[in-house]
Amino acid sequence: MVLAVAFLIIAIIVALIFIPKLKKQQDRKAVVVFTILLLIGTALNMGIALKVHIPSPLDLITFIFTPIRDYIVSFTK
Amino acid sequence: MEKEIISSRQFTIVTFLYSIGTAILIIPSSITGAAKQDAWIAASIGVLLSLLLVKLFLTLANQTPSLNFIEANEKILGRFFGKITAICFLIMTFLSAGELLYFIGIFMKTEVMPETPTLAFALLFSIIIMYAAYLGIETFARSAEILFPMFIFIFIFFIISISPQITFENIQPLLEATKTSMLYSITRFMSIFSFPLLVLLMLYPASVNVQQAAQKGLYIGTILGGVVLITLIVLSILVLGPENTAARTFPSYALAQRISIGNFLQRIEIIMAFMWISSIYIRTFMYFYTTVVGLAQILKIKDHRPLILPMGIIVIGLSQIVHPDIVHSTNYNNEIWPIFSFIFTILLPILLLIVAVIRNRKSKAQNNETPQQETKNDNQKV
Protein backbone atom coordinates (compact mmCIF):
# COMPACT_ATOMS: atom_id res chain seq x y z
CA MET A 1 0.00 0.00 0.00
CA VAL A 2 2.74 2.43 1.04
CA LEU A 3 4.74 1.46 -2.05
CA ALA A 4 1.78 2.11 -4.32
CA VAL A 5 1.25 5.58 -2.84
CA ALA A 6 4.98 6.24 -3.13
CA PHE A 7 4.91 5.32 -6.83
CA LEU A 8 1.92 7.58 -7.37
CA ILE A 9 3.67 10.51 -5.66
CA ILE A 10 6.85 9.93 -7.70
CA ALA A 11 4.81 9.86 -10.91
CA ILE A 12 3.01 13.10 -10.01
CA ILE A 13 6.30 14.83 -9.19
CA VAL A 14 7.81 13.63 -12.50
CA ALA A 15 4.76 14.86 -14.40
CA LEU A 16 4.82 18.26 -12.65
CA ILE A 17 8.49 18.75 -13.40
CA PHE A 18 8.63 17.56 -17.00
CA ILE A 19 5.33 18.43 -18.65
CA PRO A 20 5.66 22.25 -18.27
CA LYS A 21 9.22 21.98 -19.65
CA LEU A 22 8.00 20.05 -22.69
CA LYS A 23 5.12 22.44 -23.23
CA LYS A 24 7.59 25.32 -23.34
CA GLN A 25 9.39 23.59 -26.21
CA GLN A 26 6.15 23.51 -28.23
CA ASP A 27 6.49 19.77 -28.72
CA ARG A 28 2.91 18.55 -28.47
CA LYS A 29 3.62 15.02 -29.62
CA ALA A 30 6.29 14.56 -26.97
CA VAL A 31 3.86 15.70 -24.25
CA VAL A 32 1.23 13.19 -25.38
CA VAL A 33 3.69 10.27 -25.62
CA PHE A 34 5.27 11.22 -22.31
CA THR A 35 1.89 11.29 -20.55
CA ILE A 36 0.72 7.98 -22.02
CA LEU A 37 3.96 6.20 -21.11
CA LEU A 38 3.96 7.66 -17.62
CA LEU A 39 0.36 6.54 -17.07
CA ILE A 40 1.15 3.00 -18.23
CA GLY A 41 4.24 2.87 -16.04
CA THR A 42 2.49 4.17 -12.94
CA ALA A 43 -0.46 1.83 -13.37
CA LEU A 44 1.87 -1.13 -13.86
CA ASN A 45 3.97 -0.35 -10.82
CA MET A 46 0.99 0.36 -8.59
CA GLY A 47 -0.50 -2.94 -9.69
CA ILE A 48 2.68 -4.70 -8.70
CA ALA A 49 2.85 -2.89 -5.37
CA LEU A 50 -0.77 -3.85 -4.61
CA LYS A 51 0.05 -7.47 -5.58
CA VAL A 52 -2.47 -7.59 -8.43
CA HIS A 53 -1.78 -10.57 -10.68
CA ILE A 54 -0.53 -9.22 -14.01
CA PRO A 55 0.14 -11.86 -16.70
CA SER A 56 3.64 -11.84 -18.13
CA PRO A 57 3.92 -10.41 -21.66
CA LEU A 58 6.27 -13.27 -22.41
CA ASP A 59 3.36 -15.69 -21.99
CA LEU A 60 1.82 -14.20 -25.13
CA ILE A 61 5.08 -14.67 -27.01
CA THR A 62 5.36 -18.21 -25.67
CA PHE A 63 1.82 -18.83 -26.90
CA ILE A 64 2.63 -17.52 -30.39
CA PHE A 65 5.88 -19.40 -30.84
CA THR A 66 5.07 -22.75 -29.21
CA PRO A 67 3.57 -24.25 -32.44
CA ILE A 68 6.70 -23.24 -34.39
CA ARG A 69 8.90 -24.74 -31.70
CA ASP A 70 6.94 -28.00 -31.72
CA TYR A 71 7.24 -28.13 -35.50
CA ILE A 72 11.02 -27.67 -35.36
CA VAL A 73 11.41 -30.17 -32.52
CA SER A 74 9.44 -32.77 -34.49
CA PHE A 75 12.04 -32.45 -37.25
CA THR A 76 14.98 -33.30 -35.04
CA LYS A 77 13.41 -36.51 -33.71
CA MET B 1 19.17 15.85 -31.55
CA GLU B 2 22.90 16.50 -31.80
CA LYS B 3 24.98 13.78 -33.32
CA GLU B 4 27.05 11.69 -30.97
CA ILE B 5 30.17 9.96 -32.22
CA ILE B 6 32.19 7.24 -30.52
CA SER B 7 35.63 5.99 -31.55
CA SER B 8 36.10 2.59 -33.14
CA ARG B 9 38.14 1.45 -30.13
CA GLN B 10 35.25 2.25 -27.82
CA PHE B 11 32.97 0.41 -30.20
CA THR B 12 35.18 -2.69 -29.98
CA ILE B 13 35.05 -2.59 -26.19
CA VAL B 14 31.27 -2.15 -26.19
CA THR B 15 30.94 -5.12 -28.57
CA PHE B 16 33.16 -7.23 -26.32
CA LEU B 17 31.26 -6.50 -23.11
CA TYR B 18 27.90 -6.57 -24.89
CA SER B 19 28.42 -10.02 -26.39
CA ILE B 20 29.39 -11.40 -22.96
CA GLY B 21 26.33 -9.78 -21.39
CA THR B 22 23.97 -12.17 -19.67
CA ALA B 23 25.56 -15.13 -21.41
CA ILE B 24 28.27 -15.26 -18.74
CA LEU B 25 25.65 -15.99 -16.09
CA ILE B 26 23.15 -18.31 -17.70
CA ILE B 27 24.84 -19.90 -20.71
CA PRO B 28 27.03 -22.52 -18.95
CA SER B 29 24.07 -24.21 -17.27
CA SER B 30 21.71 -24.14 -20.23
CA ILE B 31 24.22 -25.51 -22.73
CA THR B 32 25.76 -28.17 -20.48
CA GLY B 33 22.22 -29.34 -19.88
CA ALA B 34 22.01 -30.58 -23.46
CA ALA B 35 25.57 -31.34 -24.57
CA LYS B 36 27.04 -32.45 -21.19
CA GLN B 37 30.85 -32.39 -21.16
CA ASP B 38 31.03 -31.46 -24.86
CA ALA B 39 29.39 -28.09 -24.25
CA TRP B 40 32.64 -26.30 -24.93
CA ILE B 41 32.78 -27.78 -28.45
CA ALA B 42 29.26 -26.48 -29.07
CA ALA B 43 30.31 -23.06 -27.80
CA SER B 44 33.37 -22.98 -30.08
CA ILE B 45 31.28 -23.87 -33.12
CA GLY B 46 28.78 -21.23 -32.02
CA VAL B 47 31.47 -18.54 -31.91
CA LEU B 48 32.69 -19.48 -35.40
CA LEU B 49 29.16 -19.37 -36.81
CA SER B 50 28.62 -16.02 -35.09
CA LEU B 51 31.29 -14.52 -37.36
CA LEU B 52 29.03 -15.30 -40.32
CA LEU B 53 26.22 -13.43 -38.60
CA VAL B 54 28.53 -10.47 -37.98
CA LYS B 55 29.31 -10.52 -41.70
CA LEU B 56 25.57 -10.43 -42.45
CA PHE B 57 24.96 -7.53 -40.06
CA LEU B 58 27.89 -5.55 -41.46
CA THR B 59 26.74 -6.08 -45.05
CA LEU B 60 23.30 -4.81 -44.07
CA ALA B 61 24.73 -1.83 -42.20
CA ASN B 62 26.89 -0.83 -45.16
CA GLN B 63 23.81 -0.51 -47.36
CA THR B 64 22.75 2.58 -45.44
CA PRO B 65 25.94 4.06 -43.99
CA SER B 66 24.42 7.18 -42.48
CA LEU B 67 21.40 5.66 -40.75
CA ASN B 68 20.94 3.50 -37.70
CA PHE B 69 18.95 0.28 -37.77
CA ILE B 70 15.53 1.78 -37.08
CA GLU B 71 15.95 4.48 -39.73
CA ALA B 72 17.29 1.89 -42.15
CA ASN B 73 14.12 -0.17 -41.64
CA GLU B 74 11.98 2.75 -42.73
CA LYS B 75 14.25 3.67 -45.60
CA ILE B 76 14.49 0.18 -47.05
CA LEU B 77 11.00 -1.19 -46.46
CA GLY B 78 9.12 2.06 -46.92
CA ARG B 79 7.27 4.04 -44.31
CA PHE B 80 4.46 1.67 -43.41
CA PHE B 81 6.17 -1.75 -43.42
CA GLY B 82 9.36 -0.27 -42.06
CA LYS B 83 7.47 1.04 -39.06
CA ILE B 84 5.85 -2.34 -38.40
CA THR B 85 9.13 -4.25 -38.46
CA ALA B 86 10.82 -1.56 -36.38
CA ILE B 87 8.07 -1.76 -33.76
CA CYS B 88 8.38 -5.57 -33.61
CA PHE B 89 12.13 -5.19 -33.18
CA LEU B 90 11.61 -2.62 -30.42
CA ILE B 91 9.18 -4.91 -28.60
CA MET B 92 11.92 -7.53 -28.56
CA THR B 93 14.56 -5.17 -27.18
CA PHE B 94 12.14 -3.72 -24.64
CA LEU B 95 11.11 -7.11 -23.28
CA SER B 96 14.78 -8.11 -23.14
CA ALA B 97 15.65 -4.98 -21.18
CA GLY B 98 13.00 -5.91 -18.62
CA GLU B 99 14.26 -9.47 -18.58
CA LEU B 100 17.83 -8.38 -17.93
CA LEU B 101 16.73 -6.29 -14.97
CA TYR B 102 14.93 -9.39 -13.74
CA PHE B 103 18.17 -11.37 -14.07
CA ILE B 104 20.20 -8.92 -12.05
CA GLY B 105 17.48 -8.84 -9.40
CA ILE B 106 17.08 -12.61 -9.15
CA PHE B 107 20.84 -13.12 -9.14
CA MET B 108 21.35 -10.71 -6.23
CA LYS B 109 18.35 -12.16 -4.39
CA THR B 110 19.24 -15.84 -4.66
CA GLU B 111 22.99 -15.56 -4.23
CA VAL B 112 23.89 -12.42 -2.33
CA MET B 113 21.06 -10.77 -0.38
CA PRO B 114 18.22 -13.29 0.09
CA GLU B 115 15.91 -11.05 2.09
CA THR B 116 15.86 -8.00 -0.18
CA PRO B 117 13.02 -7.83 -2.72
CA THR B 118 14.08 -7.90 -6.39
CA LEU B 119 12.31 -4.59 -6.91
CA ALA B 120 15.05 -2.85 -4.91
CA PHE B 121 17.81 -4.14 -7.20
CA ALA B 122 15.82 -3.41 -10.33
CA LEU B 123 15.19 0.14 -9.09
CA LEU B 124 18.85 0.85 -8.29
CA PHE B 125 20.12 -0.73 -11.48
CA SER B 126 17.61 1.03 -13.67
CA ILE B 127 18.58 4.41 -12.19
CA ILE B 128 22.11 3.85 -13.56
CA ILE B 129 20.71 2.79 -16.92
CA MET B 130 18.40 5.80 -17.14
CA TYR B 131 21.18 8.19 -16.15
CA ALA B 132 23.48 6.66 -18.77
CA ALA B 133 20.76 6.94 -21.41
CA TYR B 134 20.24 10.57 -20.42
CA LEU B 135 23.94 11.38 -20.84
CA GLY B 136 24.13 9.62 -24.20
CA ILE B 137 26.36 7.08 -25.88
CA GLU B 138 29.58 9.12 -25.70
CA THR B 139 29.56 9.03 -21.92
CA PHE B 140 28.41 5.43 -21.99
CA ALA B 141 31.29 4.44 -24.28
CA ARG B 142 33.77 6.12 -21.95
CA SER B 143 32.32 4.23 -18.99
CA ALA B 144 32.73 1.01 -20.96
CA GLU B 145 36.35 1.98 -21.52
CA ILE B 146 36.85 2.32 -17.77
CA LEU B 147 35.15 -1.01 -17.03
CA PHE B 148 37.13 -2.91 -19.67
CA PRO B 149 40.59 -3.12 -17.98
CA MET B 150 38.98 -4.00 -14.64
CA PHE B 151 36.99 -6.73 -16.34
CA ILE B 152 40.09 -8.19 -17.99
CA PHE B 153 42.11 -8.00 -14.76
CA ILE B 154 39.40 -9.74 -12.72
CA PHE B 155 38.89 -12.35 -15.42
CA ILE B 156 42.59 -13.26 -15.52
CA PHE B 157 42.74 -13.33 -11.73
CA PHE B 158 39.67 -15.60 -11.77
CA ILE B 159 41.26 -18.09 -14.18
CA ILE B 160 44.53 -18.21 -12.25
CA SER B 161 42.93 -18.68 -8.85
CA ILE B 162 40.48 -21.38 -9.96
CA SER B 163 43.00 -23.39 -11.99
CA PRO B 164 44.36 -25.49 -9.05
CA GLN B 165 40.93 -27.12 -8.70
CA ILE B 166 40.75 -28.46 -12.25
CA THR B 167 40.10 -32.20 -12.57
CA PHE B 168 40.54 -33.37 -16.14
CA GLU B 169 38.35 -36.46 -15.65
CA ASN B 170 35.31 -34.19 -15.76
CA ILE B 171 35.71 -33.37 -19.43
CA GLN B 172 36.19 -36.98 -20.56
CA PRO B 173 34.91 -38.79 -22.58
CA LEU B 174 35.13 -36.38 -25.50
CA LEU B 175 32.66 -36.19 -28.38
CA GLU B 176 29.92 -38.20 -26.74
CA ALA B 177 27.07 -35.78 -27.42
CA THR B 178 24.51 -36.70 -30.05
CA LYS B 179 23.94 -34.53 -33.10
CA THR B 180 20.55 -33.33 -31.84
CA SER B 181 21.79 -32.21 -28.43
CA MET B 182 24.76 -30.53 -30.12
CA LEU B 183 22.39 -28.63 -32.41
CA TYR B 184 20.26 -27.51 -29.46
CA SER B 185 23.31 -26.33 -27.52
CA ILE B 186 24.66 -24.38 -30.49
CA THR B 187 21.30 -22.66 -31.05
CA ARG B 188 20.92 -21.80 -27.38
CA PHE B 189 24.44 -20.46 -27.21
CA MET B 190 24.10 -18.37 -30.35
CA SER B 191 20.65 -17.08 -29.47
CA ILE B 192 22.02 -15.41 -26.36
CA PHE B 193 25.56 -14.67 -27.52
CA SER B 194 25.34 -13.49 -31.11
CA PHE B 195 21.75 -13.02 -32.31
CA PRO B 196 21.35 -9.84 -30.24
CA LEU B 197 24.50 -8.34 -31.81
CA LEU B 198 22.06 -6.81 -34.27
CA VAL B 199 21.25 -4.22 -31.61
CA LEU B 200 24.77 -2.82 -32.10
CA LEU B 201 23.69 -1.63 -35.55
CA MET B 202 22.12 1.24 -33.62
CA LEU B 203 25.68 2.44 -33.07
CA TYR B 204 27.73 1.06 -35.92
CA PRO B 205 27.19 2.85 -39.20
CA ALA B 206 25.92 6.21 -37.99
CA SER B 207 27.77 7.03 -34.80
CA VAL B 208 31.23 5.53 -35.24
CA ASN B 209 34.06 7.77 -36.41
CA VAL B 210 36.16 5.35 -38.48
CA GLN B 211 33.84 2.80 -40.07
CA GLN B 212 36.55 0.57 -41.51
CA ALA B 213 38.18 0.12 -38.12
CA ALA B 214 34.80 -0.37 -36.46
CA GLN B 215 34.04 -3.27 -38.81
CA LYS B 216 37.21 -4.96 -37.64
CA GLY B 217 36.23 -4.02 -34.10
CA LEU B 218 32.93 -5.86 -34.37
CA TYR B 219 34.76 -9.04 -35.40
CA ILE B 220 37.44 -8.66 -32.73
CA GLY B 221 34.92 -7.89 -30.00
CA THR B 222 32.83 -10.92 -30.92
CA ILE B 223 35.84 -13.26 -31.01
CA LEU B 224 37.21 -12.00 -27.68
CA GLY B 225 33.79 -12.22 -26.06
CA GLY B 226 33.48 -15.76 -27.40
CA VAL B 227 36.88 -16.68 -26.00
CA VAL B 228 35.85 -15.41 -22.55
CA LEU B 229 32.65 -17.45 -22.66
CA ILE B 230 34.36 -20.62 -23.92
CA THR B 231 36.96 -20.30 -21.15
CA LEU B 232 34.23 -19.94 -18.58
CA ILE B 233 32.28 -22.94 -19.90
CA VAL B 234 35.44 -25.08 -19.96
CA LEU B 235 36.28 -24.04 -16.41
CA SER B 236 32.75 -24.78 -15.17
CA ILE B 237 32.90 -28.25 -16.68
CA LEU B 238 36.43 -28.94 -15.44
CA VAL B 239 35.85 -27.74 -11.89
CA LEU B 240 32.17 -28.36 -11.17
CA GLY B 241 31.56 -31.27 -13.52
CA PRO B 242 28.87 -31.34 -16.23
CA GLU B 243 25.97 -32.54 -14.04
CA ASN B 244 26.66 -30.01 -11.33
CA THR B 245 27.00 -27.19 -13.88
CA ALA B 246 23.71 -28.07 -15.52
CA ALA B 247 21.91 -28.20 -12.17
CA ARG B 248 23.02 -24.74 -11.05
CA THR B 249 21.18 -21.58 -11.99
CA PHE B 250 24.32 -19.44 -11.97
CA PRO B 251 27.31 -21.77 -12.49
CA SER B 252 29.85 -18.96 -12.85
CA TYR B 253 29.01 -17.77 -9.36
CA ALA B 254 29.27 -21.28 -7.98
CA LEU B 255 32.64 -21.50 -9.71
CA ALA B 256 33.81 -18.31 -8.02
CA GLN B 257 32.71 -19.71 -4.66
CA ARG B 258 35.12 -22.61 -5.10
CA ILE B 259 38.13 -20.30 -5.16
CA SER B 260 40.33 -21.09 -2.19
CA ILE B 261 44.02 -20.38 -2.20
CA GLY B 262 45.81 -21.93 0.75
CA ASN B 263 42.59 -21.83 2.82
CA PHE B 264 43.27 -18.13 3.15
CA LEU B 265 41.99 -16.32 0.08
CA GLN B 266 38.33 -17.41 0.10
CA ARG B 267 34.84 -16.08 -0.44
CA ILE B 268 35.87 -13.54 -3.03
CA GLU B 269 32.98 -14.43 -5.32
CA ILE B 270 31.34 -11.04 -4.97
CA ILE B 271 34.45 -9.39 -6.44
CA MET B 272 34.13 -11.84 -9.33
CA ALA B 273 30.47 -10.85 -9.64
CA PHE B 274 31.79 -7.48 -10.79
CA MET B 275 32.39 -9.14 -14.18
CA TRP B 276 28.78 -9.99 -14.89
CA ILE B 277 27.33 -6.93 -13.23
CA SER B 278 29.38 -4.72 -15.54
CA SER B 279 28.66 -6.76 -18.65
CA ILE B 280 24.93 -6.90 -17.86
CA TYR B 281 25.03 -3.13 -17.38
CA ILE B 282 26.39 -2.70 -20.92
CA ARG B 283 23.79 -5.03 -22.37
CA THR B 284 20.81 -3.59 -20.51
CA PHE B 285 21.88 -0.11 -21.52
CA MET B 286 22.06 -1.08 -25.19
CA TYR B 287 18.59 -2.64 -25.12
CA PHE B 288 17.08 0.26 -23.22
CA TYR B 289 18.78 2.92 -25.32
CA THR B 290 17.69 1.20 -28.53
CA THR B 291 14.10 1.11 -27.31
CA VAL B 292 14.00 4.76 -26.27
CA VAL B 293 15.81 6.15 -29.32
CA GLY B 294 13.90 3.86 -31.66
CA LEU B 295 10.57 4.91 -30.17
CA ALA B 296 11.48 8.58 -30.54
CA GLN B 297 12.49 8.00 -34.16
CA ILE B 298 9.35 6.08 -35.05
CA LEU B 299 7.12 8.76 -33.52
CA LYS B 300 9.32 11.50 -35.05
CA ILE B 301 10.08 13.16 -31.74
CA LYS B 302 13.21 15.29 -32.00
CA ASP B 303 14.70 14.56 -28.59
CA HIS B 304 14.55 11.13 -27.00
CA ARG B 305 15.50 12.36 -23.51
CA PRO B 306 11.98 13.15 -22.21
CA LEU B 307 10.96 9.54 -22.92
CA ILE B 308 13.68 8.04 -20.73
CA LEU B 309 12.00 8.49 -17.37
CA PRO B 310 8.54 7.04 -18.22
CA MET B 311 10.13 4.19 -20.19
CA GLY B 312 12.40 3.50 -17.24
CA ILE B 313 9.42 3.30 -14.91
CA ILE B 314 7.74 0.81 -17.27
CA VAL B 315 10.93 -1.27 -17.47
CA ILE B 316 11.09 -1.48 -13.67
CA GLY B 317 7.51 -2.75 -13.64
CA LEU B 318 8.25 -5.10 -16.51
CA SER B 319 11.20 -6.62 -14.66
CA GLN B 320 8.80 -7.66 -11.89
CA ILE B 321 6.29 -9.41 -14.13
CA VAL B 322 8.30 -10.95 -17.00
CA HIS B 323 9.07 -14.15 -15.15
CA PRO B 324 7.00 -15.31 -12.17
CA ASP B 325 9.77 -17.77 -11.25
CA ILE B 326 13.12 -19.11 -12.38
CA VAL B 327 11.61 -22.19 -14.06
CA HIS B 328 9.57 -19.92 -16.31
CA SER B 329 12.73 -18.01 -17.20
CA THR B 330 14.75 -21.15 -17.97
CA ASN B 331 11.97 -22.54 -20.16
CA TYR B 332 11.58 -19.28 -22.00
CA ASN B 333 15.31 -18.82 -22.59
CA ASN B 334 15.87 -22.38 -23.72
CA GLU B 335 12.77 -22.98 -25.82
CA ILE B 336 11.12 -19.79 -27.01
CA TRP B 337 13.78 -17.09 -27.07
CA PRO B 338 15.92 -18.79 -29.78
CA ILE B 339 12.96 -18.84 -32.19
CA PHE B 340 11.67 -15.42 -31.20
CA SER B 341 15.05 -13.76 -31.62
CA PHE B 342 15.84 -15.78 -34.76
CA ILE B 343 12.88 -14.21 -36.55
CA PHE B 344 13.75 -10.62 -35.65
CA THR B 345 17.53 -10.73 -35.66
CA ILE B 346 18.27 -13.12 -38.55
CA LEU B 347 15.26 -13.26 -40.87
CA LEU B 348 14.55 -9.53 -40.63
CA PRO B 349 18.11 -8.46 -41.61
CA ILE B 350 18.12 -11.00 -44.47
CA LEU B 351 14.82 -9.58 -45.72
CA LEU B 352 16.13 -6.03 -45.42
CA LEU B 353 19.31 -6.96 -47.26
CA ILE B 354 17.44 -8.59 -50.14
CA VAL B 355 15.09 -5.63 -50.51
CA ALA B 356 17.96 -3.15 -50.30
CA VAL B 357 19.97 -4.94 -52.98
CA ILE B 358 16.97 -5.11 -55.33
CA ARG B 359 16.21 -1.43 -54.75
CA ASN B 360 19.80 -0.40 -55.39
CA ARG B 361 19.85 -2.35 -58.67
CA LYS B 362 16.60 -0.77 -59.77
CA SER B 363 17.67 2.76 -59.02
CA LYS B 364 21.01 2.14 -60.70
CA ALA B 365 19.27 0.83 -63.83
CA GLN B 366 17.04 3.89 -63.92
CA ASN B 367 19.89 6.29 -63.49
CA ASN B 368 22.11 4.63 -66.09
CA GLU B 369 20.93 7.01 -68.83
CA THR B 370 21.58 10.14 -66.83
CA PRO B 371 24.18 9.42 -64.18
CA GLN B 372 22.87 11.48 -61.31
CA GLN B 373 24.31 12.05 -57.88
CA GLU B 374 21.10 10.90 -56.26
CA THR B 375 21.86 7.24 -55.68
CA LYS B 376 25.36 8.08 -54.63
CA ASN B 377 24.08 10.57 -52.13
CA ASP B 378 21.59 8.07 -50.82
CA ASN B 379 23.85 5.12 -50.48
CA GLN B 380 27.38 6.25 -50.04
CA LYS B 381 27.08 9.06 -47.59
CA VAL B 382 29.38 8.64 -44.63
Quick summary of this structure?
With 77 residues, chain A is an all-alpha fold. Chain A has helices at residues 2-24, 28-49, 57-76. In chain B, helix 2 crosses helix 9 and helix 3 crosses helix 8.
Entry keywords:
heterodimer; A: 77 residues; mainly alpha; B: 382 residues; Amino acid/polyamine transporter I; 15 helices; globular
The total count of helices of chain B amounts to: 15
Oligomer: heterodimer
Count the beta strands of chain B.
2
Portion in strands of chain B: under 5%
- Look at the helices and sheets of chain B and give the structural class: mainly alpha
Main sheet record of chain A: none
Overall body shape of chain A? elongated
CATH topology of chain B: Amino acid/polyamine transporter I
**Total domain modules of chain A:** 1
Q: Helix proportion of residues of chain A, in percent?
A: over 70%
First CA to last CA of chain B: what distance?
A: 18 Å
Question: Which stretches of chain A are low in confidence, meaning pLDDT under 50 for 5 or more residues running?
Answer: none
Return the string of H and E elements of chain A. Answer: HHH
Give, in order, the helices and strands of chain B. HHHHHHHHHHHEEHHHH
Strand adjacency order, main sheet of chain B: 1-2
State which percent range the strand residues of chain A make up: under 5%
The CATH architecture assignment of chain B turns out to be: Up-down Bundle
Any idea of the CATH class of chain B?
Mainly Alpha
Shape of chain B: globular
Q: Hey, which two chains have the biggest interface? A: A-B, 33 and 34 residues
Pfam family, one (chain B): Spore_permease
Membrane topology (chain B): Multi-pass membrane protein
Keywords (chain B): Germination, Membrane, Transmembrane, Transmembrane helix, Transport
Family (chain B): Belongs to the amino acid-polyamine-organocation (APC) superfamily. Spore germination protein (SGP) (TC 2.A.3.9) family.
